[in-house]
Write a structure and sequence with these properties.
The chain contains 9 helices and 15 strands. The strands form 3 sheets. Strands 1, 2, 3, 4, 5 and 11 form a 6-stranded mixed sheet that branches. Strands 8-7-9-6-10 form a 5-stranded mixed sheet. Strands 13-14-12-15 form a 4-stranded antiparallel sheet, with helices on both faces.
């Protein structure tokens, strides 16, 4: 099976993939962006893919939400895993923190380490990179006082030096990743009695009316269905036009969850179930 992931090798997604990948012979396919990873599933270039969707410090990964919303009905979430994130400060060689003049990383890790950067690297400017692995590659190629925030694996791959480990602002930093496959493709069978999670996105008709969102969400509340995450993203149609991502405790086929989704569908112009899958428990593995 071909597994796609937000690469290149040395990213935290690659770490999570190696930790959570099922046993067997698999071909790993790194993709340059999250959008490319979702598109590879949509186009059938890979059978399954792993992308980050939410971080415990910085919240949702907007690129993933936007890519899923624009992927149409063909891509479906079929699982999740939670992976601990421990950021390293990486340089080409030995370098004093006072001498650092530029910090490079993906925007998510830069946010997760913002306090450290402000307090320990006050003389450095910040440069966003496509991924943490790309940031380390840039630092390895730059003969100057640059550092990257990334993985120890990326430092090893590029022959760099780890100046400091654990530079995230809060201990216990974690990222939730989701498995994607093409709709109608192979879906893991949940264990008997396993807790489920269902993810949906909706928008459209009636959203300008007072109390519209409350009426939508009350379809779950009055049926006793718990929502674990609610996130809005702009639809890129001007101010006031949003799509809403909701994670629901329970399986799509559970009577209360199914009725709640049908109730919301009556209030909106568009609703799509992004996936229904076994919820991750302690340590990020299926419970």
């Amino acid at each position: 099976m071909r597994f796609g992931y937000f690469g290149p090798e040395g990213t935290f997604t690659a770490e999570a993939l190696h930790a959570a990948m099922p046993a067997g012979e698999h071909e790993l396919v790194p993709l340059p962006t999250i959008h490319d990873t979702v598109t590879a599933v949509h186009d059938g270039a890979v059978e399954k893919a792993l992308v980050p969707i939410e971080n415990s410090l910085e919240g949702s990964v907007n690129a993933t939400l936007d890519a899923l919303a624009s992927s149409g009905e063909s891509v479906r979430m079929v699982g999740e895993t939670v992976h601990p994130i421990r950021h390293c400060l990486i340089a080409r060689g030995a370098l004093a923190l006072d001498d650092v003049r530029r910090v490079v990383s993906h925007p998510q890790p830069l946010g997760q380490c913002a306090q450290f950067i402000r307090e320990c690297l006050p003389g450095a400017d910040v440069l966003a990179a496509a991924s943490t692995a790309e940031a380390v590659r840039l630092v390895a190629a730059e003969d100057g006082p640059w550092v990257a925030v990334g993985t120890r694996l990326a430092a090893e791959l590029h022959g760099c030096t780890v100046l400091r480990e654990g530079v995230e602002d809060v201990a216990g930093n974690e990222t939730r990743f989701v498995w994607l496959t093409v709709a109608g493709g192979e879906v893991p069978s949940p264990r008997e009695g396993a807790p489920g999670k269902t993810s949906v996105v909706f928008w459209g008709a009636g959203s300008d009316a007072s109390g519209w969102l409350v009426r939508c969400l009350s379809e779950f509340a009055r049926r006793g269905v718990n929502l674990t995450r609610i996130e809005s993203r702009p639809r890129r149609e001007g101010f006031g036009h949003y799509m809403f991502f909701v994670d629901i405790d329970g399986w799509e086929h559970d009577d209360a969850v199914r009725a709640g989704i049908e109730g919301v569908a009556a209030h909106v112009g568009h609703l799509r179930v992004l996936g229904s899958y076994e919820a991750a428990g302690p340590g990020g593995l299926p419970r």
